[in-house]
Amino acid sequence: MTSLVSAVSGPHARLFSCLLRLGPQQVGSRQLHKGTSCAAAKSYYEVLVLGGGSGGITMAARMKRRVGAENVAIVEPSERHFYQPLWTLVGAGAKQMSSSYRPTASVIPSGVEWIKAKVVGLNPDKNCIQTDNGKEISYKYLIIALGIQLDYEKIKGLPEGFAHPKIGSNYSVMTVEKTWKALQDFKEGNAIFTFPNTPVKCAGAPQKIMYLSEAYFRKTGKRSKANIIFNTSLGAIFGVKKYAEALQEIIEERDLTINYKQNLIEVRADKQEAVFENLDKPGDTQVFSYEMLHVTPPMSPPDVLKTSPVADAAGWVDVDKETLQHKKYPNVFGIGDCTNLPTSKTAAAVAAQSGILDKTISLVMKNQTPRKKYDGYTSCPLVTGYNTVILAEFDYAAQPLETFPFDQSKERRSMYLMKADMMPFLYWNLMLRGYWDGPAAVRKLLHLGMS
Ligand code: FAD
Ligand code: UQ1
Description:
- By secondary structure, the chain is an alpha/beta fold.
- It is built from twelve helices and 21 strands.
- The structure holds flavin-adenine dinucleotide and ubiquinone-1.
- Flavin-adenine dinucleotide (FAD) binds at residues 22-24, 50-56, 75-78, 84-85, 87-88, 118-119, 145-147, 170-171, 201-202, 205, 302, 304, 336-338, 345-348, 350, 379, 381.
């Protein structure tokens, strides 16, 4: 890992920048624009899925049941499919990187076509897309599941700064193990954790690694030598009051420093310095020296979507928040991190969305009006130590929507086991096979007879 990172610095930083992105980029690629003809399309599928991540594989499995495997295709360039929620634990040394991924070939539903390419253009007016290997593929129904793009290069000094020690990031396969290395190498000084000034996936992850680091320092006798700082662009620790209050107690009890409205703009990795801008006073910067730095990068919609007709003004796929059907193109649908659904971007949200979208598409296929409504369900298992989790679950209104009949704002061992062991099993065996649409049914069962 380290050799790979150090091998790509200097003139190769741009390449490294591309490698660092979870979602492939369209740098230098031709993009299809509205009105471009797809008449020369070589292939056609009844359902075409863009992206073979959590949402893409899950929906392909469901669509296979609806229309038959031979009528479904997935466009995905990556050889590996990642279960990203495990990276929080990989960065803290509690799980192996190898347990967080499987070959993409093994998760593509059998009989479904895997088109191993990047999408470089969308033309919903002509019902077709274009890939980086020059192919045009047309469809009857399109499901967009392209995830969110990591923009490390928007921070001066990155991504090349990752070639130095003492810095890591749980958000990329290229840098997550560097977090664990920095944690182990920590001697004395500031351990700094950042949160960018953009939408992110799993908004709890930037602080989960802080709690785990604190626990690690305690376990290894280094706690008294560590000054633990969370510099966040946000103005609050969490968006749901119930869980924010619980986290605030932990922060005080564990002597963690939280600085709000602080946005990381530069890393001087050779000097172990991080520069933050005060968002309330633009231009006002502060330099922090660090002994360990965990970076949560700025994020944005995948470049291919930013300029496409399916995007809203900010670049996200513009879908109805209840049915997930595109607002303008009725045969186009979106799921997961690439959409403008106004909820927290998580795999748990994708699970709940997949059940709704399945029903929406089945009705659209029968020329009926979509009825089933997504309530914004999302979940964030807030890992607060090596065997404790606060299980945040909430809806569009940022109101708790808890599965279990106990107070989930309390730190619990049972919820850690759920996060670390039960969820990966459920993900690989049920969700990706299209048999998990979130815990709504379990919640109803467990809350029977209760208010
Ligand atoms: P992804 O799963 O990211 O899939 C997008 C896919 O699109 C990728 O396979 C990518 O290669 C592909 N792609 C991108 N661009 C193109 C292109 N141009 N052409 C073709 N394919 C393309 N969620 C939880 O529920 N609980 C957690 O505890 C949790 N913790 C997390 C911790 C970390 C550190 C991280 C990084 C994420 C975490 N998440 C968690 C979030 C969760 O992983 C995502 O929300 C989820 O994977 C979103 O699914 P998706 O299908 O929208 O995107
Ligand atoms: C969930 O459904 C899910 O999707 C697979 C996750 O993604 C990793 C989660 O982290 C969580 C918490 C849920 C919700 C499931 C239960 C049983 C509460």
